[in-house]
Amino acid sequence: MQVFQKLAPFTISTYCVILLPLVGCSFHQEVNQSVSHKSIRHDFHKLSPQMTSDVAIHGFLLWVSLGFLMPLAILAIRMSRREEPRSKRLKVFFYLHVFVQILSALLATVGAVLSFKKLENSFTNSHQRLGLALYGAIWVQALIGFFRPKRGKKERSLWYFVHWMLGTMISLCGIINIYTGLKAYSNKTSRSTTLWTILFTAEVLFIAFFYLFQDKWEYIQKQGVVLDNAPITVSNQQIPEGIYQKELQPEPCGKRSRLIKNLFD
User: Fold this and answer.
1) Rounded to the nearest 10 degrees, what angle do helices 70-79 and 194-223 cross at?
2) CA 17 to CA 139: how far, in whole Å?
3) 107-131 pLDDT, tens digit each
């Protein structure tokens, strides 16, 4: 019970950091829907070639960071669960997870700085608000990872749940925000992003398939293999019937009488 009491503030704050920026988006977008549709045709004329290039670089950085590196880091730590404790492969997967997550956070930071300095950020749409929440959540997640309690402590279970929950939400919301960013780029520049949307969807599906498939791969391989070296148990071991007959066969009366006679002599 005490664990859940400690867990409640972390969970509530996690959901607030991710979801609160989206609360007022639908109302604001409905109010300005007619105005935005009228001005879409004129927005791409206002974007200079430099601005268009900055938007493309921003999108590429966030695609690599949230759309590829972060899911890759999750896959690495997921695959480490199959390794033996204190093995070299376990350490490789762990440090790969740490390195890729740090690289992902740095690229996201560069994309955020580029957005704040060179792009128009009014934070009146879901893409910009969700992006702002993700920038903060990424570094909160990094700090949580650095302050990892040692295995065996009571705080380890709470830390693992918060780290796993926040990381999963960041990854999912990051993928959603990449889709909204592609749509915003298409509206701003009047360029088709269908090809990029298809490529990103294919990447997400592949990562999701590999995430679900890699746990069962070893199990699937064993289905068509006869395990000759399986340990022999009493249930499948064939024991000759003569052994049981010899153990259950009563001793002759002559042997018993001689034994009793020897005891009293």
Assistant:
1) 0
2) 12
3) 999 999 998 888 877 777 889 899 9
